[in-house]
Amino acid sequence: MQPFIADTDTENWHDFEVGSRREIIALLRAISDKKQEVRVAARDGGAVYTTSILDVDGDTGTVLVDRPLDPDYERALLSGDVSFETSLDKIRIFFGTDHLQASLHDGKPALKMGVPASLIRLQRREYYRMATPLTNPVRVSIPLPPELGGGVGVFPLADISVGGIAILDNQFVLGDTIGRDYAECRIELPDLGNVTTGLQIRNMLDMTLLNNNTNRRLGCQFTDMGRGAAAAVQRYITKLERERNARIAGLG
Question: What residues does the PilZ domain cover (predicted)?
Fold first, then answer.
């Protein structure tokens, strides 16, 4: 089964399909080893939550993922087609299955699926995203229209790219309107100062975490961004990349 991809700008995803079983197993094991967060969704949109890959067994051709605590989510995911999205070294990865089943991993509840026959690895530069720090997070200030209460809303970033940002709106301040534009938004980039840009909401995802808390993630595209602001965003992404590489090398 091919994964279903929510973004409208990935119509050429066939160009990024990986069909080598050995490569697929290696990628899934790397995701598991790095404990990458994985978003999983039922095709009907009724269940979305975050999980992780627990084990990849090339001999039996099976993959084990963590199991949601909420039995309603589990029933939804066991009932049909399911899609997964994650990232590895700034590359977005999608895969899917039409058959999940209850299982155990080290005596704890898990979900089991077969190694997918293919996956999608989006590696074009415009898809590269850098996760922003969890401690001392980067924030964006968004002027709110009167119908949303007015004033200014301040939201932490989840990630940043040259084309936009993902923000966390866990209090559901911005609602769920896809396509809405917000002008004169200010992003506070550490050590680089503030940049001002317009934002357009492009996608929304409500994620139920394993502790049953709900996080809302809003994907936003930059609009009306000046050349200087765009350069500052690129410098900040480069800074994050260097810090990440230093950590990997044991120098951070």
Answer: 123-238
